[in-house]
Amino acid sequence: MILLNKLKNFQIFGTFLIFLFALEESDERYIEGLNVNLGEALQFLREYDREATAMCNRVTMAQWQFVTNITDNYRRKMLDEQTLKAKFDRASWRKAVSFAWSRIPDPLARRQLKMLATRGRNSLTDDKFNEIYHLIAEMKELYTRTRLCPYKENDHQCNLVLDPDINKIMAQSKDYKELSYYWRAWHEAVGPPLKNKYMRYVRLANQAARLNGFADAGDQMREDYEDDSFQQNIAEVISAVTPLYKHLFTYTRHKLIDRYGDVIRKDGPLPAHILGNMWAQNWQGIYDIVQPFPAAKKLDVTLDMMLQGISPLRMFQIAEEFFTSMGMIPMPPEFWRMSMFEKPTNREVKCTASAWDFCNRIDFRIKQCTRVNMEDLFSTHHEMAHLQYYLQYRDQPLLFRNEALPGFHEAVSDAIGLSIMTPQHLHRIGLYNNSTDDYESNINFLIMIALEKITYMPFAYIVDQWRWRVFSDGDADMTTRWWELRLQYQGIVPPVTRSESHFDPASKYHVPADIPYVKYFVGIVLQFQLFESLCDVAGHVGALHTCDFYRSREAGRLLSDVLSVGSSRNWKDTIREMTRGRTDRLDAGAMLRYFEPLAQWLRRQNQMEPVIGWITSQEDTALFAHWYKSKSTCLKPTSIALLLILNALYWIT
Ligand code: X8Z
Ligand code: ZN
């Protein structure tokens, strides 16, 4: 049956596929050809590695030139290089699927061929490939070009951009109505014009996935995780984290009621616009409201950095010393010569900090408009951790010069972050004298990290839950489905009534931009697993959140071993090595141990609360679900289905 379907699909794309077919005895999911010649496969991969490396270098160089000197000329050059690369990728895919790759006996060659054969949307005809490519570009363009008018200002200067203008207002304003204005204006400017384009995109993405042997585009996205129980694994993680999330939620609700009064129900969900972020994805913006002990000493070494006359260059040297103190790789001379450490004054640049691998094993750079403050000191370490990962896997073939699984790059950088942001570390590098090792400062510290990472878990979980469901079940009720997930996992509701035409999921860039999201969820889980492992081998004793593995050669050795394999093997082997045999799965245990002192404190604070978490009322669901709005159809289709089944069972028994 599967074979028949595949053969039928083949009819619609070019003649070159005539000699391809799915082999029944191989893994039935994927497209493969007939060629089992190992010598030819190895020869192809050698050529691919050489040509793709040169291509990668040219594209990266063009991108770097553009973002460090924004001109139309450099933009054009970059787009030209990207187009050439897309053509090259397409030709490589054709060649890769001409092999019966799952029967190639060399496991590393097989793995590389599989990567080439199963990724991307090259199974589409030229017309459709171009269509989806331009559709995504158009959606991104529409999103990034959106501008808003300011609240209550009549000067008609409608040029506020999301980043940084509106993001800043969402994090800083405490004016309920102002926040509501920006929330609504953003959602209504972005969502509606994207809905039809998105629906077409879903169809094309699904076609590409099916032609490639997947059930749908979500199934294809999950292939990156090479794990049939991946969905089960992440569902277990979110269940394990939910009790802590609900306690943090309840404590925050209490503080928000103190601030905004009874517009917030004591046992209900929270309105999405007052949590310090456009998508309520993390709540760092309201730390000032939630902070339990405002009088406790604040951890900020900015003044110390200034008093010591630390320059941006010195910040990079401090970060490098963190890695060399653990016996890891120093930054190469090219890094010091070619990076952009400060904002140039003579040209326009994109200032978002980023780490760059130019794919030639020599050239690695960071771009950052560094300011001398604590936030940028952390960011410097974060970006350099990305570079350390690039350096560690630089001797792998190009296809394996990649993170072990999507999200691991961020996990590594963030695990380093957990170590360097401790007062213990800042003291060891001579930036912090007073000890903040009192109970209140510790709770403040943990709440701050929890407002960044624990609140993010349900959001990072639902984006792809929603997307995968659209890919598998179709585009009906997309906005309602979005809010059902938001309410179920995050406990938030829209501040104003929604309808299907609002298409709110598109308010998040990664949705129209076709960027998978579950990797961010994976990244948070793994950073704690990695952090705990490194703390263990470094011999840390005491509460996990106070661990700093600076200067630990043992931690450096383990980290180097884990990073240097890149993506050359299944990530489960890497996680097993990382946790020294304890597990090969995503596991919330380390994260929960890190936050245990906070969890205990929150449980005590919430003792008098009537409800831990939220109770969903009709009033909440009526904000977005049309079947709750009219009295005649007040039952959800799922409830109706359940009633019908119960009814049928009644008659059968
Ligand atoms: O998209 C990003 C980065 C690029 S990888 C800016 N992040 C996610 C988001 O903004 O939703 C970083 C944190 C999560
Ligand atoms: Zn990063």
TrEMBL record:
<keyword id="KW-0862">Zinc</keyword>
<dbReference type="GO" id="GO:0046872">
    <property type="term" value="F:metal ion binding"/>
</dbReference>
<dbReference type="InterPro" id="IPR001548">
    <property type="entry name" value="Peptidase_M2"/>
</dbReference>
<keyword id="KW-0645">Protease</keyword>
<keyword id="KW-0121">Carboxypeptidase</keyword>
<protein>
    <recommendedName>
        <fullName>Angiotensin-converting enzyme</fullName>
        <ecNumber>3.4.-.-</ecNumber>
    </recommendedName>
</protein>
<feature type="active site" description="Proton acceptor 2">
    <location>
        <position position="383"/>
    </location>
</feature>
<keyword id="KW-1015">Disulfide bond</keyword>
<feature type="binding site">
    <location>
        <position position="386"/>
    </location>
    <ligand>
        <name>Zn(2+) 2</name>
    </ligand>
</feature>
<dbReference type="GO" id="GO:0005886">
    <property type="term" value="C:plasma membrane"/>
</dbReference>
<keyword id="KW-0378">Hydrolase</keyword>
<dbReference type="GO" id="GO:0006508">
    <property type="term" value="P:proteolysis"/>
</dbReference>
<dbReference type="Pfam" id="PF01401">
    <property type="entry name" value="Peptidase_M2"/>
</dbReference>
<dbReference type="GO" id="GO:0004180">
    <property type="term" value="F:carboxypeptidase activity"/>
</dbReference>
<feature type="binding site">
    <location>
        <position position="382"/>
    </location>
    <ligand>
        <name>Zn(2+) 1</name>
    </ligand>
</feature>
<feature type="disulfide bond">
    <location>
        <begin position="535"/>
        <end position="547"/>
    </location>
</feature>
<keyword id="KW-0479">Metal-binding</keyword>
<keyword id="KW-0325">Glycoprotein</keyword>
<feature type="binding site">
    <location>
        <position position="382"/>
    </location>
    <ligand>
        <name>Zn(2+) 2</name>
    </ligand>
</feature>
<feature type="disulfide bond">
    <location>
        <begin position="351"/>
        <end position="369"/>
    </location>
</feature>
<feature type="active site" description="Proton acceptor 1">
    <location>
        <position position="383"/>
    </location>
</feature>
<feature type="binding site">
    <location>
        <position position="410"/>
    </location>
    <ligand>
        <name>Zn(2+) 1</name>
    </ligand>
</feature>
<feature type="active site" description="Proton donor 2">
    <location>
        <position position="510"/>
    </location>
</feature>
<feature type="disulfide bond">
    <location>
        <begin position="149"/>
        <end position="158"/>
    </location>
</feature>
<feature type="glycosylation site" description="N-linked (GlcNAc...) asparagine">
    <location>
        <position position="69"/>
    </location>
</feature>
<feature type="signal peptide">
    <location>
        <begin position="1"/>
        <end position="28"/>
    </location>
</feature>
<feature type="binding site">
    <location>
        <position position="410"/>
    </location>
    <ligand>
        <name>Zn(2+) 2</name>
    </ligand>
</feature>
<keyword id="KW-0482">Metalloprotease</keyword>
<comment type="similarity">
    <text>Belongs to the peptidase M2 family.</text>
</comment>
<dbReference type="GO" id="GO:0008241">
    <property type="term" value="F:peptidyl-dipeptidase activity"/>
</dbReference>
<feature type="active site" description="Proton donor 1">
    <location>
        <position position="510"/>
    </location>
</feature>
<dbReference type="GO" id="GO:0008237">
    <property type="term" value="F:metallopeptidase activity"/>
</dbReference>
<feature type="binding site">
    <location>
        <position position="225"/>
    </location>
    <ligand>
        <name>chloride</name>
    </ligand>
</feature>
<feature type="binding site">
    <location>
        <position position="386"/>
    </location>
    <ligand>
        <name>Zn(2+) 1</name>
    </ligand>
</feature>
<keyword id="KW-0732">Signal</keyword>
